[in-house]
Amino acid sequence: MLQHKYLISVVGPTGIGKTALSIQLATYFNTEIISADSRQFYKEIPIGTAAPSASELQAAKHHFIHNKSITDTYSVGSFEKDALTKLTQLFKTHQIVIMVGGSGLYVDAVTTGLDAFPKIDKAIRIALNNTLETEGLEALQEILKQKDPQTYNTIALQNPHRVIRALEVCIGSGKPYSSFLNKTASNRPFKTLTIGLTAPRDIIYNRINNRVDAMMAAGLLEEVTKLKDQAHLNALNTVGYKEIFNYLNGDCSLESAVSTIKMNTRRFAKRQLTWFKRNSNTLWFDYNTDISKIIEAINTRISK
């Protein structure tokens, strides 16, 4: 019997093999999986979010996969609360639980808690939204780059809500958004061991390109087409959907849209790695590492 309860958090860039590894670990430790992928919550978009397949979901019990609709309002704060409640339940019958996901903010919310930010005048957000409407997202990105380069290099720049949130804190407080991060870690009734998967950049990018091609072959165009009337929803303001909405609106060719999906996903993967490498305690492994070596490393760390 272990002295502590352990959450094994599997992180890494998109397309690196986190889902497969988490299932192998869940099988070995006879436990269940918490998903911390903020896009896989939504049941209407399984293809573009690379959600686990039916066979993968059967291989190990998953939580927070397809549990929400794109019409639902669901924040990282709500996820933190829900995930901690679920972990409390799971730790009653399991010594170890697996968490997997590439959404760094959602992972951190569970492992260390959300950071405390100052109260911001609502007028600032209104002004930023007006800038978004009149000058576009790139104008806001450039402002953020000047005010807070660290945040500019780590957040999802294609997500206007994330950019505006960071900017309103910068403007409202007079301090960089990044200066409020990782100040105090919340006490958790479990220990976290983070396992990171990585690969040389050319391999990561090649895997991403192949994954996007596989998504298109699996019916991504049809999936997005069905959702065209809901393109305004925040859940769909994400890579893989925005680009095809542009195609459907006649703004570009399908070939161009697919190429842009690949480019934006590669950029996202770069930011994921930047985010996750802030944690100096992460045990990093090449994506091809044999599962036995990863399990050995986990058991060694836990035994200490």
TrEMBL record:
**EC annotation?**
2.5.1.75
User: What is this protein's record name?
Assistant: tRNA dimethylallyltransferase
Q: Which organism is it from?
A: Bizionia sediminis
Please list the cofactors this protein needs.
Mg(2+)
The entry's substrate-binding residues are T14, G15, I16, G17, K18, T19
Which HAMAP family does the UniProt entry name for this protein? IPP_trans
NCBIfam families listed in its UniProt record: miaA
- Binding of ATP occurs at G12, P13, T14, G15, I16, G17, K18, T19
Relate the assembly described in the record. Monomer.
Domain Guanylate kinase-like span(s) in chain numbering: 5-198
